[in-house]
Design a protein that fits this description.
It is a single chain. The strands form 2 sheets. Strands 4-1-6-5 form a 4-stranded mixed sheet, sandwiched between helices. A 3-stranded antiparallel sheet has the order 3-2-7. The longest helix has 13 residues. 32% of the residues are buried. By secondary structure, it is of the alpha+beta class. It has one domain: Nucleoside Triphosphate Pyrophosphohydrolase, CATH 3.90.79.
């Protein structure tokens, strides 16, 4: 019997010096074609901040400075029959991202909250909606 427990995801809201957020275009995973912040699954024994630092480094080569947990979302992916609680961690990044997982991300780019691309990955879309409510 398949485990239907919710998974815990971590999303990294990484701001550059121009107050832009780093987003990647997903591929070969659920949400393919959607724009999302760097992130991944919380591992056993890891804090959300440790996970955010690790995932950002693994995916982009960038370091997260002054990380802070800021919000969570609760999302259901009906087509994939998945349920995620995503904890968002924000911080600052310097430099340009490298495409270190080209099998999972098509490209990285910078966007302001006022000029986000479309479509957005469901947890990040929920994050933006909560920010604006």
């Amino acid at each position: 019997m398949e485990d239907k427990s919710p998974r815990i995801g971590i999303g990294v809201i990484g701001y550059n010096s121009n107050n832009q957020i780093l987003l990647g275009k997903r591929k070969n995973t659920h949400g393919e074609g959607d724009w999302a912040v760097p992130g991944g699954h919380l591992e056993f024994g890891e804090t959300p901040i440790e996970c955010a630092i690790r995932e950002l480094k693994e995916e982009t080569g960038l370091d997260l400075e002054d990380p802070q947990e800021i919000m969570f979302t609760n999302d259901f992916f009906d087509k994939e029959d998945k349920h995620y609680v995503t904890i968002f961690v924000q911080g600052f990044v310097q430099g340009e991202p490298k495409l270190l997982e080209p099998n999972r991300c098509e490209k990285w780019d910078w966007f302001t909250l006022e000029s986000l691309p479309s479509p957005l990955f469901k947890p990040f879309k929920s994050f933006v909606e909560k920010l604006n409510s």
